[in-house]
Specification:
The complex is a heterodimer of chains A (229) and B (416). Chain A has seven helices and ten strands. By secondary structure, chain A is α/β, with parallel strands linked by helices. Chain A has a single domain, classed as Rossmann fold (3-Layer(aba) Sandwich). Chain B contains 16 helices and ten strands. Classes of the chains: A alpha/beta (229), B alpha+beta (416). Chains A and B meet through helix 2 and helix 3 of A and helix 1, helix 13, helix 14 and helix 16 of B. The structure holds adenosine-5'-triphosphate and magnesium ion.
Chain lengths: 229, 416
């Protein structure tokens, strides 16, 4: 099976008078179409790991490669280009741009990528919103949406450029059970129907259990990986 | 619309009031710059025009920039001698071989030249007398070099030639003597020559000092009256192209050695004042624009601060540092452009308002004028706009660069 993302011996230490080790000795490989739930106690380094795997941060030791390319050899601009075209992020907070409608928020990464022309972009964005049951939100500003809708809009934006991998950091942390379930429904479908990979950090044991692969972090180390045990 | 511009406009629209204040700041700077420039340039251009119109462009005088070396100094040049208390050799003052110089200068293209001998004399009419400065002129040439004829309220320059012993006097002189055109006055020179003259014309320049002390006669008669036969003490030159004045003056001086001043040199103190005046104006306007620039810096800084999350998400979406920087620099530029355009309006309004001002109670400050002299030129609009745009962009650049360097991880952590 091919590997989309690989981490080998990854350690991230925050420098300073008292260096903080965020994660250490992480070995992790992800195949296309895999759905991974990352759990662990608060402060165990889940977010830190996600930033590293999402190329927002660089390891102090070890290597991370994406689709076969070693990220250590990539410039900041190359990492940005990879994030733009291959990765999608969803955070606990939606981070939609408040000045723009839902549709425009979706169009922003598409316009930056420039792969599609204007008409195509709009068609894609509307189709994406429709697939998440968000047709009506297209022309609304983020402040006019409910919490669950905002989070779905954020997921739609993360998917706008057709990424191979979606990374979500507690995307349901601010949502009620029903909305949380909807979000995980979407993730399941992305994996099953569209063969994308999803890594989701969550505290929610019930939702985490829906992912076929479970990774558990304690004190910055992977103490359990269902793919290995 | 480009994406960066879209986002930049979005940010500014969200903070309408602060954006408006920033735009207003720039507009005031640009507007005042335009208004003040119009005012200053109007006055200065008028002044220079007056000088160029009235006075000769180049004057050759019967003196030297460095005093003549005395024969004893020439004889011992370079020797270790210092000579003191030498009685200077008496020389007749005046431009030597004036005729040849006149002809040589006259032969140049675009140049008119007129000779003059000026000296003091006393005019007497009946029991009254007044001292005047008599100018011996050549009316034909004079007319081409100065325009005293324009200031003549009675008579013509030509009458000096057609009337025997004619004199043109300033209106103040005539009043002091109680004489009018047609009357015969007596001129007495320090050389002891006494000669009757008949008033053929009156000059009123509007400058009291001139009108109360000047008189003009034919050059030949002045030479007799002042007992300086064949002598002139200045050559005055008028050019088709005034910009040639300074180079021509330098050229003539190097050839003929007589002190030769261009109008710029003669008016150097006033032109120097203009430079100071302009410097003050530009400092004031510069200060206004500086304040405006701080306003822009402030608003962009605030936006960057407030939009940290947006910046983080844009970066995590795959925007590069340069993309982020472009957005915020654009915001500054938008404020700059909007301010410049509004500033044009302020400038036009200011000029129109100044044009309405009248100084009736003071009387005509400058002949025939009772309001501000305003220059209407296009370049201050361009210069103001360019300066505003540059200032706005530079002011935005600093916070924009800070925005581009924000680490999304830190922000996302902080926001979670
Ligand atoms: N900038 C920082 N300076 C010091 N310590 C930090 C910094 N950022 C993170 N840490 C520490 O690193 C550890 C890992 O943090 P991280 O956010 O990755 O944990 P987490 O598993 O996501 O926690 P949570 O479930 O609360 O989100 C924590 O102990 C945290 O306190
Ligand atoms: Mg976390």
């Amino acid at each position: 099976m091919s590997t989309i993302l690989r981490a080998e011996g990854v350690t991230r230490v925050l420098p300073g008078p008292q260096p903080v080790t965020l994660v250490r000795d992480i070995d992790f490989a992800l195949s296309p179409g895999e759905f991974v739930a990352v759990t662990g106690p608060s402060g165990s380094g889940k977010s830190s790991l996600l930033y590293l795997l999402g190329l927002l941060d660089r390891p102090t030791e070890g290597r991370i490669s994406i689709e076969g390319r070693d990220t250590a050899a990539m410039s900041e601009n190359e990492l940005a280009a990879t994030r733009l075209a291959r990765l999608g992020f969803v955070f606990q907070f939606h981070f939609l741009l408040p000045e723009f409608t839902t549709l425009d928020n979706l169009l922003i990464p598409m316009r930056r990528l420039g792969r599609w022309d204007e008409a195509e972009r709009e068609d894609r964005a509307r189709a994406l919103l429709a697939s998440l049951g968000m047709d009506e939100a297209a022309g609304k500003l983020p402040e006019q949406l409910s919490g669950g809708m905002r989070q779905r809009a954020a997921i739609a934006r993360a998917l706008a450029n057709d990424p191979a991998l979606l990374l979500a950091d507690e995307p349901t942390g601010n949502l009620d059970t029903r909305n949380a379930r909807t979000v995980f429904d979407i993730f399941e479908r992305l994996v099953a129907d569209e063969h994308r990979s999803v890594i989701v950090v969550t505290h929610d044991q019930e939702q985490a259990a829906r992912a076929p692969r479970q990774v558990r972090l304690v004190d910055g180390r992977i103490v359990h990986d269902s793919a290995r045990d | 619309m480009p994406l960066a511009l879209d986002i930049a406009l979005g940010h500014l629209k969200r903070r309408k009031r602060q954006t408006l204040v920033s735009v207003l700041g720039v507009a005031l700077g640009v507007g005042f710059f335009i208004g003040m420039t119009s005012l200053m340039r109007g006055f200065q251009t008028y002044f220079v025009q007056q000088v160029i119109d009235v006075a000769p462009h180049v004057v050759m005088k019967d003196e030297f920039r460095r005093p003549d070396l005395q024969p004893v100094e020439l004889a011992f040049a370079g020797g270790a001698v210092e000579v003191r208390g030498v009685k200077p050799r008496d020389t007749v003052r005046g431009i030597r071989e004036a005729g040849a110089k006149l002809a040589a200068i006259e032969a140049m293209p675009g140049v008119a030249v007129a000779p003059m001998l000026r000296g003091p004399a006393l005019l007497r009419y009946g029991a009254r007398d007044t001292s005047v400065s008599i100018g011996g002129i050549d009316p034909e040439r004079e007319r081409r070099v100065t325009n005293i004829e324009k200031d003549m309220t009675e008579g013509r320059l030509e009458d000096l030639r057609s009337t025997a012993n004619g004199v043109i006097v300033g209106i103040g002189v005539a009043q002091r003597l109680g004489a009018k055109v047609g009357d015969t006055v007596t001129a007495i020179s320090p050389a002891g020559v006494t000669q009757p003259f008949r008033i053929v014309g009156i000059i009123a320049t509007g400058v009291t000092a001139i009108d109360a002390s000047e008189a003009y006669v034919l050059l030949r008669l002045a030479q007799v009256l002042l007992d300086r036969p064949n002598v002139i003490n200045s050559l005055r030159i008028r050019l088709d192209d005034v910009r040639e004045a300074e180079p021509l003056a330098r050229r003539l001086e190097s050839v003929f050695r007589y002190r030769t001043e261009s109008w710029e040199e003669s008016n150097r103190n006033i032109l120097g004042l203009f430079v100071i005046q302009n410097a003050i104006m530009y400092s004031v306007v510069g200060a206004i624009l500086l304040v405006a620039a701080f306003g822009i810096y402030n608003i962009i800084s605030t936006v960057v601060h407030e939009k940290a999350r947006d910046i983080a998400i844009l970066k995590s979406l795959g925007f590069r540092a340069a993309d982020i920087q472009r957005i915020f620099v654009l915001e500054g530029a938008i404020v700059g452009v909007a301010g410049a355009i509004a500033g044009w309006g302020v400038g036009i309004g200011l000029i129109e308002a100044l044009a309405q001002v009248r100084f009736d109670q003071v009387g005509p400050v400058i002949q025939g004028r009772s309001g501000f002299l305003l220059a209407r030129e296009w370049w201050p609009y361009l210069a103001g706009a360019v300066f505003a745009l540059v200032a706005a962009t530079v002011a935005a650049f600093i916070p924009a660069r800070r925005a581009s360097r924000l680490n999304p991880v830190e922000i996302v952590r902080g926001a979670a």
